[in-house]
Specification:
This protein is of the alpha+beta class. The chain contains 5 helices and 7 strands; from the N terminus they run H-H-H-H-E-E-E-E-E-E-E-H. The chain has a 4-stranded mixed sheet with strand order 1-4-5-7. A 3-stranded antiparallel sheet has the order 2-3-6, with no helix packed on it.
Length: 173
C-alpha cells in the first residue's frame, strides 16, 4: 500500500475512533456494533461519514427512504469533515507576495431540505466539534468552517451553530 493510502487509512481509523469515544454509551445498536469494529477498522471497511450517519439514525431519526434531498425523514442531512491546514497566497502592497497559514474544514453538497448535522474532526487534538446549521443560512453548495490556526477553535460565523453532541442526537444539551 502506498504511503498516501496508509496515511489516509490511519486518519480514517482515528476519525472513527474519535466518534466512538464521543458517542453516548449504552445504546443497544452501538453495543452490537462494537463487537465487529476492531477487525472492520483495521481492514478499512468502516468510514467515519457512515458511522456519523448511523449514530444519528440510532439516536432515533428515521432514515429517508430515498435519500434524495436529505439523509433523514425530518429533512436533516449528516456531513463529516476534517480540519485541514494550508497556506493561502496573498499579495500586498507593502509585503509583496506572502503566505497566510489557514485551518479550515470544507463541507460540500450542502443544499438539502433541512438542517445539516455536521461533525468536524480535529486530528491535532483528537476531538470532534459538532454543528447543526439551518438550511436557510447556507449561502451556496459549500460551507467553509474557519478555525484559528493555533488553537484549532472555530473562528468563523459558523461557531454560533456549534452544538453539544447530545443536543444533535437527542435534542438536549
Amino acid at each position: 500500500m502506498s504511503a498516501y493510502l496508509e496515511s489516509n487509512a490511519e486518519l480514517e481509523r482515528n476519525k472513527v475512533e474519535c466518534l466512538l469515544k464521543d458517542h453516548p454509551k449504552g445504546h443497544e445498536k452501538l453495543k452490537e456494533f462494537y463487537r465487529d469494529i476492531p477487525k472492520s477498522l483495521n481492514e478499512g471497511l468502516i468510514d467515519s461519514a457512515t458511522i456519523w450517519e448511523k449514530f444519528i439514525e440510532w439516536s432515533g431519526r428515521k432514515k429517508h427512504p430515498t435519500g434524495h434531498g436529505a439523509d433523514f425523514e425530518d429533512g436533516t442531512d449528516a456531513k463529516y469533515g476534517s480540519i485541514k491546514e494550508w497556506q493561502d497566497h496573498k499579495k500586498g502592497k507593502k509585503r509583496g507576495n506572502y503566505l497566510v497559514d489557514r485551518s479550515t474544514a470544507t463541507i460540500t453538497g450542502v443544499q438539502k431540505d433541512g438542517d445539516l448535522l455536521i461533525a468536524i474532526y480535529d486530528r491535532w487534538n483528537n476531538k470532534n466539534s459538532y454543528f447543526q446549521i439551518p438550511q436557510d443560512v447556507i449561502p451556496n453548495n459549500t460551507i467553509t468552517i474557519e478555525y484559528n490556526h493555533q488553537t484549532k477553535e472555530c473562528s468563523s460565523k459558523w461557531k454560533e451553530y456549534k452544538k453539544d453532541l447530545n443536543n444533535i442526537l437527542y435534542g438536549r444539551e
